[in-house]
Every structure is written in structure tokens, then in C-alpha cells.
Design a protein that fits this description.
Blueprint: H1 2-29, E1 32-35, E2 51-59, E3 65-77, E4 80-86, H2 95-103, H3 105-113, E5 116-119, H4 123-127, E6 135-143, H5 146-155
Antiparallel strand pairs: 1-5, 2-3, 2-6, 3-4
Length: 156
């Protein structure tokens, strides 16, 4: 029984590791950069919780932001991360994650409207090689006292 639980935990950690590695590879391989505004998330919108959310941007072939949505919300408590909303796998969604996602919709619209995509010089040549309709970029934003807690953990 204990071995089964350990294997289940390892699968979960490997899944999370795979998720972050895949995002890093996607962002490194593409030609350009998403420039985000310096707008912080108000504590009242996130119910005083700490954590981070990942917003995924889809950039069209002409270099404009086509669509943006919340792909992941994680809360930080008891020195560990808890996935409360995951757009790709709804089975990980919890009530608080769904309510956070709904609560942040207006703020995210303002954030996306103030975000722009800067192309690199050879963007037009490189985009012809890619077969997808969109380029995908993910931006991670911290909220609450998450940043302070993480810095304190690093000092210990």
C-alpha cells in the first residue's frame, strides 16, 4: 500500500515537472517576447490567498495577441503548492480555483489589453517554418505574499 502511494506521488511530481519543462521549451524556441504591464493583482480579488497563476497567450502569425486565458492557478500553503485550477485537465479543478478564475476575468482582460508582443528581427522568416496557427507563450504572475514566503524559504 505504501509503495502504491509513493508511486502515485512520484507520478504527480513527474507530471508537474513535465508541465514546466514543456512550457520552458516552448517559450525558448519561439522568436519574440511578451511584454506585460506592471500591474499587481489586488488581494481582494484572490481572497487574501498566496500563489501564482499562469496566463497563456496565443500569438497569431502576424505578431498580434489572438487569445489569452488562465491555464493554471496554484495556491501556496503549508510550504507546498496546491493546484486549484488547471485549464487542460479539469479533474484538478477545485471550487476555489473555479471561483478565483471567474473573479479574475475582468482583471485579466485589463492585463491582456495592456500587454504587447515584440517580434525579433527574423520573426517573419522563422514563422514560416512553424506549422501551427499560433505561437504559445506563458506568463506566470505571483499574488498575495507568495513572493515574500518564497524569499524567506530561500534564506533558510
Amino acid at each position: 500500500m505504501i509503495k502504491f502511494i509513493r508511486k502515485a506521488k512520484m507520478k504527480k511530481y513527474f507530471f508537474i515537472l513535465f508541465f514546466f519543462i514543456s512550457y520552458n521549451i516552448c517559450c525558448v524556441a519561439q522568436k519574440g517576447e511578451v511584454i506585460t504591464p506592471k500591474i499587481s493583482i489586488p488581494d481582494s480579488l484572490v481572497f487574501g490567498k498566496s500563489g501564482f497563476l499562469a496566463i497563456e497567450f496565443q500569438i497569431t502569425r502576424d505578431g498580434k495577441i489572438g487569445k489569452a486565458f488562465v491555464s493554471l492557478i496554484q495556491l501556496y500553503k503549508n510550504h507546498k503548492y496546491d493546484i486549484v485550477y488547471f485549464e487542460r485537465f479539469p479533474k484538478y479543478n477545485k471550487k476555489i480555483g473555479l471561483s478565483l478564475e471567474r473573479q479574475l476575468k475582468n482583471w485579466i482582460n485589463v492585463f491582456v489589453n495592456n500587454t504587447r508582443f515584440e517580434k525579433e528581427r527574423n520573426f517573419d522568416e522563422e514563422i514560416k517554418k512553424i506549422e501551427d496557427k499560433f505561437l504559445r507563450f506563458s506568463v506566470q504572475l505571483e499574488f498575495g505574499s507568495f513572493g515574500k514566503k518564497r524569499k524567506m524559504d530561500a534564506v533558510k
